[in-house]
Each structure stands twice: as structure tokens, then as C-alpha cells.
Amino acid sequence: MLEMKSWRIAALVILGMTCLCHARAATTGRRQPNIIYIMLDDAGYGDFGAFGSPYVKTPHFDRLCAEGMTFTNHYSGSAVCAPTRCVLMTGLHTGHCRRRDNTAKALTQELSKKNGRPLVFLEDSDVTVAEALQDAGYFTAGVGKWGLGNPGSAGVPEKQGFDYWYGYLDQVHAHDHFPDEIWDGGKMVSVPGNQNKKKETYIPYEQERKTLELICQNKSRPFFLYVAVTPPHGAYIIPETDPAFAMYEGIPGSKQVQHYAAMITRTDQMVGKILDTLSELHLDEDTIIFYTSDNGPNAPFAKAIDSAGGLRGTKRLLYEGGIRAAMAARWPGHIPAGKKSSFIWDMRDVFPSLCELAGTKTPANLDGISVLPTLLGKQQKSRDIHYWEIHSPFQQAVRYGDWKAIRFGTEEPLELYDLKNDPQEKQNVAADNPTVVQKLETFLVSARTESPYFPAVTKKKRKKKKNL
Q: Which of 26, 31, 44, 450 has the highest Cβ tally under 10 A?
């Protein structure tokens, strides 16, 4: 399959370079559904109107909730961007997938010499959801931040199942919304408007343009479009001439908060344009859309505008505020409209769900389960236990029904919270529930496989007390 990529990429880039968005899509018989997966970067659980934000305006996310299903117990793959993307692409949780944190915690000299920094990239042996959908006949494309392989590596998207990618490969490169070069169709290309330190081309606008073009160009065949936008992460900047910026005059916090909120709203407006384009092409009933964020917010925004939605923790922490992610899914005629679901699932479940949607075989080794029955309004049992780990600092977390456990070292005691009665994780009830603690500790013994790059830590590092 991978050997065929080069000529397929060239053919697909040439195909349909112009887009007449008002032309009706050809539909003959029942087709595989188009799939659009939209993921913001660092927007919090509380940054969406439908999830109670009194500050941030997201009318199109809210529309998806009204016209589709809202998930209140949906989780990210991790509390930072790269492992979340690895979980999403591979269907493996962070105790099994290749990338378990943004940077490696071991063999760093070896990786830095090989990859420029201590970064772990996907390998040829990794199987992604894009590869599965590509094999099922889908055109596969991505826009935004990849984060799983830099130029020259086996981890670039075109070697991991994507026919086309526009945006950033490196997560640090993605911090710059005015870069002088960008990845486009398998190579780095110059951004003329940003040469010689000029800042004329704001890449989030280009991400929108590419997204709409890709929908139009591929309207007559099933497509998988992964829209991994970079806002609101990065330098927290949007052109102040953008109308979204003026909407947040007087918002609590600094001017940075104004930029942050405007970036979310401006991206939400892009989603509105996606919906308009699908309607113009008569693809509404042929397209399922997911809309979420990759992990929790940064602390300044949680403090200023409650971006974590009242949950404990932020990005880089496995408390609820770091990993619980707002999610809306819409597929007219298939997903019940206006339904709110408390079903517990996370991003590893996307891979098997999309395979079932596409009518293709799901690889046997995945950690995820298909949530298609739930999406279609049917009853479904969630998995018994959900698992996460992260390495800066090392943490392990478990969701077991209404129980949530977290620890900061394999030999550290578990903190235990009853999310039904204590969603903010304020009261550690481990001492009162020894049976639950024992069950979860037993589970954690075999929850992960060893990684040479992400070793487990036994004891939490504690600051030494100063002598008075």
C-alpha cells in the first residue's frame, strides 16, 4: 500500500483543482459516508456555549449539538497534543501507543541525533485509521497540525495513510501562525506573504481555505478529512482586524485572553462554512462530522474565563480538566438530533468507529471499541476501565464507571474520586473504598507495556524542604 502513495498523491493533487461549490454532488446509490473530524488545539471543556461557557461564542458547535449528539463524558487521548494525536490515529491508548508524551523521557541523545529533538515518530509498522480508510476506498486528507513525524521520517502523513496534508508537521513549528514555510502535498513550500519576517499570511485562514477546497474537490467520492486546526494554541494571536477579535472587548483577563477567545470563535465560524458547503453540495446526509479538542486548556484561560468548565486540572494533568473534552457529532438522518449522551468514550475509539462506518475490517490489536451503536441512538455498554498515562510529570489515570483514580508514580498511593458526586475531584475517597482501590491497582499492573522512550516512574519527585 505504501509503495503506491507517491503516484496517488500526485494524481490527487492535480485532480479537481477548481471547485464549483454550488454544483450538486453526484450520488448514485448508497455511498460510504464522508467523515470530517474537527479538532481544536488546547480549547477547554468549558470553552463552548453548549457546555456552559458564559464568555466564548461557538454557535456552530452549539448547532451541531442541536442537530446531532452531545457527549458529556468524552475524553481526549492524552493531556498534551502529540500523544493525543497518536491515540487518535492508532486506536491505542497511551500505555500502548508509540508516542506517549510530546518529548521522550529516555534515550534523548539518541533521538535528538536522529530527529533533531527527543521526538518519537510513527514507524512503518504503525497502522493508522487513515491507512484503513484509504484501503477502504476513501480519499484521505488532513489540514493543520500533524505532530507524529517530521520531514524525512517514516512518520510523515503521506507515509501514514494520507493522500494529502496541508499544515504543520512539527508541533513547535505549529506555534507560529505566520511561518515562512508550510507542509503542502508532501513537501515544505514557501509562504510568500511571510518572507523576510513579514506577517501577511495568517495560516489559520489558509487552513480554512484548504478545508473547503478539499470538500469541494472530492464531493463525488467518499472522503476522510482530518481538520486538526492550530487555534487556539500557539502564540495566541489573531489579526486584530478580524471581526471575532472585537467581539471580546472587555473579556476578563489580559489581551491574550481576548485573542484566545477570538481564535476559538473564528475557528467555529470555519465550521459554519463547512456546514454551508456540505449543504450547497447536498452532502449533509452523506457526511458525519465530529467536533472536539485535543486536550484541556492552559492555566491562564482556566483562571480567567473558566476554560476547564469547573473541572480540576488543565493541560498536562490527568485530572478531568486536562483530558475531558467537549464533543459533538452530527449526521442528519442517522444520529438522533438534540440528544445528550453520558456514554464514556475516548479518542482511541475513533479508529474502530470509523472502520465500522466505512464498512471495512477493524485491525484486531486496537484498544478502542466502535461507538457507532451509541452514535446511532442505540444502547451500548462502555468498556469497564479507561486508561491514560503521561510523562511530564509521570501520571497514570483510570476511569472506572463513576470512579476516577490518578497517581504520580507506580509506587505512589492512588487518589480516588467519585465523579458522580464530586465531578471537580475535590475529595479523595481512597481510604473509604479499599476494594475499589485494590481493583484499580490490580488493573494498573498490566495496563501498560514498557517503552524505551517513556519509562514508568516509581516515585513522585518531591521538592526538598529548605532548612529554616
A: 44
The mean predicted confidence, pLDDT, of the chain is: 93
Measured between alpha carbons, how far is 374 from 347 in angstroms, rounded to an integer? 15
Q: Which residue has the cell 489573531?
A: 238
Which residue, among 273, 251, 272, 270, has the nearest Cα to 260 in the 3D structure? Answer: 251
Rg (CA), the chain: 22
50 contact partners, CB below 8 Å, separation of at least 6: 58, 61, 62, 65, 66, 70, 326, 328
Do you find a cis peptide bond into 232, omega within 30 degrees of 0? yes
Q: Contact at 8 Å (CB) between 143 and 167? A: yes
pTM score > 0.85 for this model? yes
3-state class of 3 per DSSP? helix
E-state strands within 377-435: 385-391, 394-400, 403-407, 415-418
Q: pLDDT by residue (tens digit) across 394-432?
A: 999 999 999 999 999 999 999 999 999 999 999 999 999
Distance between CA atoms of residues 340 and 342, nearest Å: 7
- Can you give the pLDDT at residue 462? 76
Angle of CA points 307, 311, 316, to nearest 5°: 75
What cell was used for 403?
470512579
Under a CB-based contact definition with an 8 Å cutoff, are residues 311 and 320 in contact?
yes
The answer to whether 77 touches 148, Cβ cutoff 8 Å, is no
Q: What is the pLDDT of residue 1?
A: 45
pLDDT in tens, 44-100: 999 999 999 999 999 999 999 999 999 999 999 999 999 999 999 999 999 999 999
Q: What is the largest CA-CA distance in the chain?
A: 80
- The answer to whether the beta carbons of residues 49 and 59 sit under 8 Å apart is yes
Q: Where are the alpha helices (DSSP H) in 281-433?
A: 299-305, 320-323, 350-358, 372-375
Neighbours of 169 (CB within 10 A): 23
Question: Rounded to 5 degrees, what are φ and ψ at 407?
Answer: -145, 160
Q: Distance between CA 222 and CA 354 in Å, rounded?
A: 12
Cis peptide, bond prior to residue 393, ω within 30 of zero? yes
